[in-house]
Amino acid sequence: QSESIELGRPLTNKHIKRYCIIDDLKEIHVKISDRRCDCQCSNRETTPAFTSVLTNAQSVSRNVAITFDRVVVNIKDGYDTTTGIFTSPNKGVYNFSSTVMNAQGQTLWGTETVLDLFPEYKIVQRRIDALENDNKALKVEIDALENDNKALKVEIAQIKDKQIRPAFFSTLSKSAVLSNSNKVLIFDGVKVNRGGGYNPSTGIFTAKRDGLYHFSCVIYGDNGKDVGYQLNKNDSLYVRGYSNTGPHEASSISVLVELKKGDRVYIKHRHLGSDRGSYWK
């Protein structure tokens, strides 16, 4: 049968009698400790153990230890009834349990500071905390170094790109039939393509960086045919060229072009007309 005991009210004789089982436990403990019993446990007298109860209700305040003042068992005298603190006499793993009851609807918070009994654990824990902080600092430093490394790689790539002067030389692998005024002449026979700016699949050169570029082109009209062509910068006409009628007539253009990164230059076919004299250089 259970009965509530209010905090702040001392235990009566009635209550003590109802908890006489504690005395029975003490008697059993004495019997077990007797060397004449059949139990042959080698560490029964050396293992620290204690059991203590509260004989009078206590009014407790924050961060104050509750003193269980009536000792039932206290092997190795680890428990102090005046302070309510157990001090471990031996190094090892301990099991603790407690039962606390409050009264009059008040809230009672309890904290177990078992690890406070092991100062060596605190030392190790402080070392672990310090190592974790060092590890965090190292991670921050590693992240900063990785960012610096990425920035250096970009800078090195830019330096290498500046050291490589773009240049290309390409020819027609076979004669081209020009029937479309918008057809780009694709010089597919690449001999040199330093920097990879020229695309032999499209016939277009794309500037990899800003600069002043020089382009030259030679066009020969087969069988004495007139050939009109032009050099474009992006989608705009830059200069025209013309291969005159004759058995072995050829035409060439040579130009300087200011380009920004991403600008495109290419040769395209054009119909001949009255504008032969414009854009000639």
UniProtKB/TrEMBL annotation:
It holds the Pfam family C1q. Keywords: Coiled coil, Secreted, Signal. PROSITE patterns: C1Q. The keyword Lyase does not apply. Residues 43-109, 161-281 form the C1q domain. SMART domains: C1Q. One of its GO terms (cellular component) is extracellular region. Gene3D superfamilies: 2.60.120.40. Residues 121-162 form a coiled coil. It is found in: Secreted. It comes from the Eukaryota. This is C1q domain-containing protein. It comes from Mytilus galloprovincialis.
